[in-house]
Amino acid sequence: MTFDKQNSQVTIYIDDQPYQVSTDNNLLAGVLSQKLNLPYFCWHPSMGSVGACRQCAVTQYQDENDQRGRLVMACTTPVTDGMRISLKDSQSEQFREQVIAAMMTNHPHDCPVCAEGGECHLQDMTVMTGHTHRNYQGEKRTFNNQYLGEFVGHEMNRCITCYRCVRFYKDYAGGDDFGVYGSKNQVYFGRQQEGQLESEFSGNLVEVCPTGVFTNKLFSAHYARKWDLQSAPSICAHCSIGCNTSVGERYGSVRRVMNRYNQAINGYFLCDRGRFGIGFVNGEKRLRQASGIRQSSPERLSKLDVSKALVHFRGKRFIGVGSARASFEANYLLKQFVGNSKFSLGLTERQMQLASLHQQYLSQYQPVSIADIEQSDFVLIVDEDITQTAPRMALAVRQALRNASIEKASELGVPHWQDSAVRTIGGQELSPLYLIQSMGTKLDNVAEQVIMQSTAATIKLLNLMTELITSNAPLIDIHHQGQQLSSLLNQLVSAKKPLIIGGWSRQSPQLLSAIMSLLDVLTKADMPVRSAIVAQEVNQVGAISLLDQQSLSVEDILENVKQEQSSEVGGIIFLEQELSGVSQTQLEQLKQTQLAIIALDHSENAVTALADIVLPAASVTEGDGHYVNYQGLIQRYYQVHPNRLPIMDSWRWLTLLATTLFAEHPLAKEAQSLSQLHDDCRQYDAKWPMLPLDDHYDIARESHRTSGRTSKTANISVHEPKTTQSTDGYRFSMEGSKPSSTAEMPFTWAPGWNSNQSITQFQQEVAGSLLLPMTTQYLSIAQSIAKYCDHSEAVVQTSQANALQFSQQIKWYQGDWQAGLTPEFTLIESTNYIFLSSDYASQQGWQSGQWLQVSCMSSKDNAPTSVIAELFFDPRLSDELCYGQLNELATFDVKQVSLMAASEKQVADYKMRRKAEHTKAEQAQQYMLERLKQQDQFIPIRLMNGGLDDV
Amino acid sequence: MNAMTHPLTHLVNLAKPLNFSQYSEQGGYVGARNALLEYSPEQVLELVKSSELKGRGGAGFPTGMKWSFVPQFDEHDRRAAQNKYLVCNADEMEPGTFKDRLLLEGVPHQLIEAMIIAAYTIGANKAYIFLRGEYFLAAQRLQQAIDEAYQAGWLGKNIQQTNFHLDLYLHTSAGRYICGEETALINALEGKRANPRAKPPFPQVAGLFGKPTIVNNVETLSNLPHILKNGVNWFKELSPGSDAGTKIYGACGRVKTPGLWELPMGATIGQVLNDHAGGLCEGLSLKGLLPGGASTDFLLPEHLDTPMDYDSIAKAGSRLGTGGLIVLDDKNCPVAMVLNLLQFFAQESCGWCTPCRDGTPWAVELLTRIEQGTGTVDDIDSLLKLCDFMWIGKTHCALAPGAVEPLKSALKYFNDDFVEHIEKGCCPYHGGH
C-alpha cells in the first residue's frame, strides 16, 4: 500500500520452521509471501485487513513450550520477531474448515453454470481447507438479483459476505451508488435501485469478488472457461497510462480482458474502459479484407498483388500520417519510409504546439508512476478530468489522499494495513487535493479546494503562482479573483511529496506551458515536486517522440493537398488514423484530392471511408508491438490469437508496401518477426531506442488443461491441425513453458490457485514486485519541434455577446475511438446535459431539468452546430462558464456556445433519435453475439505462419 | 427509600419525573456543582478511580480506568483543540433487562447531571445520549430535561460561569441490538452501518468521528452525581462485597412480582429472586436462570446463594451482565427457551463476521429441529461444535459468544431435555401439541 516501507525482515516460526518475513505487512501477507497456503477472503493485498471473514485463522504460541496456543486472525495480526505460529495444527485447521462450512450454508453450489467456475477463489479456498462434506440441512436464503448495467452481472445467492466488493467500490474507489444493505445472514450487496453502476471501476468487482456474485456480462454472453482461453500479456490500448492486461481468446474471438499485475502501474485494478472496451476487436466495424487491390489468393495479399497495385506510384513521394494509437514500430517505419518532411501524426497546429511542449516536458522531467502517485502527500490537478481521461491515475490519487489518515494511525501505532482501524482513526481526514478546473469532476468531493474557472483564468492563476514562488514572497493572505490561495501555496511548498497533474484535455498549449513554468520554478527552488502530464492516447508519447522540426500538421497536409499538381507527392498513407481532430470540411477537401489515399486500420472510420486502398490492420490483440505510456515507459503487447489473413500488423503492411513504394530504403524488406524488425532497425539507425527483444522463450498461451486441443476443428477436418507458429516467445498451444516462466505472464495460475489471486505466488512479497523482473525501459525524448514554441496565441476568449465558454466533459466510455466502438458503450451513453451557474440560468428564467438549445461555434469551422441538452446547476460556475456533455461534439475543444430554451418538438425529436441509436446499438450487440457464436462452429485455421492448408 | 441507601432510584418518579427545579431542590446538581467548581478534571478522575465504580452495561470494566485512557493533551499540543466526545449508551436491548429504562423515564435529570460530570472529567464538549428507539417516553422526558438544563445554565456555553462548555444531544436509535456494542453504537451515531469496529483503536483514543470518545452505560453514569456528592468512602461502603456501590437488579419470567430493585452490590440471587421477586408462581419450581440478561450462562437452583457481583457470578460459571434475572421454571421447555434466544441473536447479528452471521442461524436450524422432535443425536454434537466455533477470539465482537453462553450452558445443564426431545420425537413439555 502506501507510505514508505521500513523493510525490516524478522524470523518467525511457522510450524517450527524458520522464515524471514517482513514486518511491514500483516501475518497473512507474510505467510502468503512465503508461498504457503493460507485461505482468506476479506483481506485484499491492496485493500488491507478488516477481520470480517475469519478465514485466515492460525494458532499462535507464546513460546516453544506453549502447547495450546490461541487462535488469531492472521490478517489482523502484526508480524513480530520470533513469533511462533502453526498452520497445520488441528485447532486452526478445524476452525478454517468450519468457516467455509458456515459460509457455504447459503451458497447455491451452482458451479457448473457459474462464470467464475474454474477460477473461483471460493472453490480454491474450499478445497484448501478440506471442507468436502456438507452438514447443514436447513434452507438456503435467496435474494433477488439486480440489473447493474451492461457490464456487471449480479447473482447475490452466491455471496459469502466477505465485504470486499463494497470496500473496493466505496472505500477504495469512492463510488457512492453501490452499498451494503440488511444485516444478519441476509446482507445484500447492490444498489439502492437497479441501474447502471456509475463508477468507472465497476468491472473490478468481477475480480475482487471471490466468487461469482459479480461477473463480466460481456464475457458471460460469449463464454469459455478460463482454462479454455488462449491468453497473452497485453497492454490496454485505451489511454496513456498503459495498464497491463491479460486478454483471453477462444475460437478466434476475444472474450475478455483481465487485470495483469504490474506493481508500478495498475497493480490489481483496471478501469472499465480498459476492461470492457475490447469489443471493437470482434466488432461489426472491423476491416477484414483489403479493398482497392486485386487479390490473387483468397486469403492473403501477396507481394505481387501489392506491387501490381502500387507500381505506378513507384518513385513518388508519400505523406505519412501516423497516429498515437498505432504501435511505436509502425509509426517509426512510416516516418523512415516517407521521410521527416512528409511525416505527420494528424495533429492540428495547436496540437503540434502541445506536442512540442510535451516533448520539452519529457526531456526535462521523469513523470511519476501510478504507484508513486499513491505516495503523494499533496496533489494539484490542473484542468484535466483524470477520472475520465486516465481513470487509473485518479484511483491512485484517491489512495494518496488517505496518507493523512495512515500517518495519523501510525502515530497511534496502528499499521497502514489495518484498513478499518486506519479509517476509524482517520475519520474524514484526507491529504490535500486541489483542483483548478473548468468543470466538475468526480474528485470534487474529496478535494480541499476546487477552483472553478475558465482555462484562461487558470493560466493566469498558474502564472501568478509561479511569480509568487519566484519572488519568494510570504505566502499569506493571497487571493486571486476571489479565491483564497494561501493554503494551496503553503501546502504546495511545504509538502514532502507534492504532485502536479496536467494534461491534453483542454488542448491548450498555454496551459501546459504555464504548468511547466510552475514546475520549473519549484524544481529550481529545490522542492521535491513530482508531476505527470496525461496524454490522450495509448502511444501518444511514443508517437510525439518521432515528431521533429519538419513534421507536418493537419493544416500543412491540407496545404500540400491543394498544391498536389505541382508537388511530387503521389499519395497519403494513413496509419491507424481516424483524423478525429479534423472538421467535415477538411475531410471533404481530402476526398476531392487526386492523391492516392492508402489507409491501414482495423476498423471503419472517416479515413478508411475515403481511402482508395484500405488494408486491414491487426488490432492490439492480434498484433505485436510496443506502446509508450505517459511516463515514456516502453511496454510490449503480444499477439493473443493469430491474425486471420489478410489482417496483419501495420508494421508488416508497411514493410510490404515499402518493397514496392520505397524499394531503395534499407528497411524495405518484408519483416518476418518483430525481433527481426528490431534488429533491422538497430542496424539501420544507431539511435534506435529499444533494447534487443528477448523472444527466445516458448511459453504456452493456452493452459495445460485446455479442452479439445486436437478436436477443436474436427468438424472441418479430422486431422490434428499444426499449431500456428509464432515468433514472439509465446506459443499458440498448450505445450510450452509454464506461464510463470516470464514476468509477462499470459495468465496467472498456480497449483491450488486458479483465480487471479494466484499472482501472490509469483510476487517477491504480497503486493510487491514480481519474482522475475519486468523490463522497464524508458524512451528518451528530446525536444525536436522548435518552430511551435511561440505560445502567444490567446486561448478562446468570450467575444460574442451572450456567448458562454463551454467545456466538454468527455466520459470514460467516450475518450477513446477504439473503445467507443463497443456497442455497450453506446448503450450507457448519457443524454446531453449542460451545467450553468444558477444565477445565470435564473436571469434567463430557466429551471433545472429544462432542455436548452446549445449553439456551438467550433474553433475550427465556423458553421454553428445546434444540439439540445438538459440543464443542471453548478453554483460554483461563473456566469460566462458552462460545461457538460454534448455527445454530438465528442472533441475536447473549448467552444463558445449560445443558449436558448429548446422547443418541445426538439426535445421529442432528440429523445426519439436517442432511442433509435439505442435500439441500433442493442441490435449490433445482438448481431455480433450471434455471429461470433456461429463462428465458433467454423474455425478458419489457415493462418499467417503455418497452419493447415486442407480446409 | 433514601438518598444514602438507594442513591440511583430514590428520586425515581415514573408517573411524573422531577423537573429541573424539583430535582435541584432534592439535592440534584450538587454533585455536578462540586465537580465543576471544586475539583479539577484530574481530581474527579482520581475520585472515580478510587470509588472502584465498574461499568454496569454488562462487561464490568472499571470506569475510572476507562476514562484514564482518554489522551489529555497539554495546551500547546496541536491535538488539544480536537473534539472529544462523551456518549451515553442508553440502547437497552438486552432481553430481560429494563433497568436503564427506569432511570431514563423516572429521573432524567440524574443522567444529565452525570453526563456533565463525565464530560467535564474527560474534557468533552459534545455529548450524545444514544437511546433505544422504542423508548418513546424516555425520549420525550430526556429532551425536556435537556431543554431545562440548557435554560438553567447547566448545558451550553460557560456552564455555571465556568470555562466548561457542553452540548448534549439526544439520538434515538433506528434499532439494532448490536448498537449496544460501543463501537457499533459509534458507527451508528456517525450514520454508518452498525458493525462493531476493529480494536485497537479503542474509542477512548479514536472513537466518534475519529476523536477520543467515552461510551458509558446509563446506570454507570448515574452513580457519578452521588459519588461526587457523598464521597468515595460512602460509595464503597454501600456494598458489603467486593464490588462498590449499589446495583439495580431485576427479575422476569414466571415469578410472583417481576420488577427492579436497587440493592447493595453483591445481593445474592436468592435474595433477588425470593425476597424481592417473591419466588416462582404457584405450582412452579425453579429449573434455572440467566443471571444478567440473555447473553449469560444458565445458573441452577444450587447457585441461589451466589452473591450477584462480578467475581462471584463468574466463579459460578456465568456473568453478572446487566443484573436482570431471566427465570426458567420447570414447566417451560429449556430447548424452546434457548431456541428463542438464539433466534434473537441470529436476528440481531450484524452480519460482519462469519461465525456469528452464519453460525447463529445454523444453531437456530439445529435447535428448531430438535425442538420439533426431528433432531438427531449428531445435532447435539453439531451444536457443541458451533458453540466452540462462535466462542471468544473467533468472532469480531462479543455478540456470538454472548449467544453461545446460554446455549452451551443449556447443553451442559439440560442435556437430558435435549436428548428426550430427540428420543421422543417431540417436545416433552408440550407433548408435541
Walk me through what this model shows.
- The complex is a heterodimer of chains A (951) and B (433).
- In chain A, strand 10 and strand 11 (244-250) form a beta hairpin.
- Among the domains of chain A are: 9-88, Ubiquitin-like (UB roll) (Roll), CATH 3.10.20.740; 100-221, no CATH class; 804-902, Beta Barrel (Barwin-like endoglucanases), CATH 2.40.40.
- Chain A contains 27 helices and 35 strands.
- In chain A, helix 9 (328-338) packs parallel to helix 23, helix 14 crosses helix 15 (419-426) and helix 16 (455-470) packs parallel to helix 18.
- Chain A is 27% helix and 17% strand.
- Chain A is an alpha/beta fold.
- Helix content of chain B is 42%, strand content 11%.
- In chain B, the strands form two sheets. In chain B, strands 3-2-1-4 form a four-stranded parallel sheet, sandwiched between helices. Chain B has a four-stranded mixed sheet with strand order 6-5-8-7, with helices on one face.
- The N and C termini of chain B lie far apart (48 Å).
- Chains A and B meet through strand 4, helix 2 and helix 15 of A and helix 14, helix 15 and helix 16 of B.
Low-confidence stretches of chain A: 789-798, 941-951
Using the alpha-carbon principal axes, give the shape of chain A: globular
Query: What's the Cα radius of gyration of chain B?
Result: 22 Å
Strand coverage percent of chain A: 15-25%
**Helical residues, percent of chain A:** 25-40%
Distance between the ends of chain A = 53 Å
Mean pLDDT over the full residue set of chain B? 95
Q: Strand order within the widest sheet of chain B?
A: 3-2-1-4
Major sheet size, sense and barrel closure of chain B: 4 strands, parallel
Q: What does the main sheet of chain A amount to?
A: 6 strands, mixed, barrel
**pLDDT < 50 runs, ≥5 residues of chain B:** none
Strand content of chain B: 5-15%
Could you please say which CATH topology of the largest domain in chain B applies here? Rossmann fold
Largest beta sheet: strand ordering of chain A:
30-34-31-33-32-35
Cα radius of gyration of chain A in angstroms: 29 Å
Q: Give the helix/strand class of chain B.
A: alpha/beta
Helix fraction bin of chain B: 40-55%
Q: Structural class of chain A, please?
A: alpha/beta
Instruction: Give the N-terminus to C-terminus distance of chain B in angstroms.
Output: 48 Å
